[in-house]
Structure formats: C-alpha cells, structure tokens
Request: fold
Amino acid sequence: MLSEEAILTRNKIIGVLLQQARLDARVSIEACARTLGCDGALIAGAELGEIGLSLPQLESLAYLLSVPLAYFLEVEGLPDAAANAPSVPYQEMIVLRNKIIGVLLRQARQEAGQELEEVAAVLGYTPSQLEAVELGESQVSLVELQILAEQLGVSFESFMAEDLILPVLRSNGSGHEWPDHLSPELLDFVLKPINLPYLRIAMNLSEMPADTLRQIASGLLEITY
Reply:
C-alpha cells in the first residue's frame, strides 16, 4: 500500500507530464477543461499534483494531446509535433469508462472474495463511497486505481481500454459520426457496462480467420439441432 506521500509524489509526476504534453501540443487549460467537462481549476490542480485525475480523464487528455496513455505511466519521449486530434465525445467516453471500470472493480473484488469494507479501507474510503465507484457514479484517481488493482490481485492494464474505446470514438477516423451513426438500440447496448464481455467477444471474433468462424458456426448449429 502506498503512503500518502508516495501518492502525492506520483500525482506530481503525472502533473508535470500533463503540463509538458499540454504545452507541447499548444492546448490551453481551458480547452482541456472543456474536454473533461470540468472547471479549469481542476486541470491546474492536476498539473500541480494537488488533484489526482482518473484513468478515463487521462485517457481523454492523452488522446486530445496526441500522446500515448503510457506517457503518463512511464516517461516516454513526446512526438516532435502533436497533431490536432479529431473532435470526439470525451465526456460521454469518460462516463462510459467510469461505468466499465466500476464493473471490472466489482468483478475483481468478488472474485478475490473481498468485502466492500475491506477494500474501501485500503483507500480510506467508506463502503458506500467504494460502492459508488463500482456503480460508475463516482471515480478514483489513476494512482488509487493502481492501489486497488494491487489489493485485488489483478493487473492495472486490465482496466485500460484504448483498444476498445478509442476506435469507437474515432468512428473511422472522422470522430464526428459518434454516436449519431449508431441506432438508439445499438447505442444503448454499447453504453451498458454489463455488455462489455459481449463487445470483447465481438472483437475477438472479428480477428478470427474465416475458416475458424465457419467451424464455430457449424458447431453451434449441431448443438442447436
């Protein structure tokens, strides 16, 4: 378990990296705040290390500033010139990501056989506060999420989902069609965290060779009939 001083130090490091990326990309604090749907004071506080941003917030800022998410997790060189990222629904993404992270946290906690009270105590939270996180109604900072991952015996990377979320947001590179290009039924399905396993199955199926897919389909038909 990290001490408060260690958490503060890591938040300060992330803050310095955030400010450097923002300045190199020539993006204002106000623009970052609009992206997250928050006050500019939150961005300024995050750059000073006084406020810990959540994983979904950092995912959005990484995309906005054209740096890899790993840049905030380990020191990497910034690109020579940050390209302007297409317009994407960052705030909708953050809401969705918080819900997904909450579902994954609850699943990991239950699989580890740990109660709300036990896990909440690791962060100095009350059980109700942690329950709000699991329901996607609240969020934890990136550093706190790393602590929870260690407590529950799962990898922090399991909560990262650039491969799942950002391709959807990019919408074939334009970034302007999401979510308008989705039918209301499909959008409702995507936004429900409980359907995350089905989305991952769809991703895995899309990468399978045609012959393998035919074999799976044939097997399903044999079971059905």
The two ends are 54 Å apart (CA to CA).
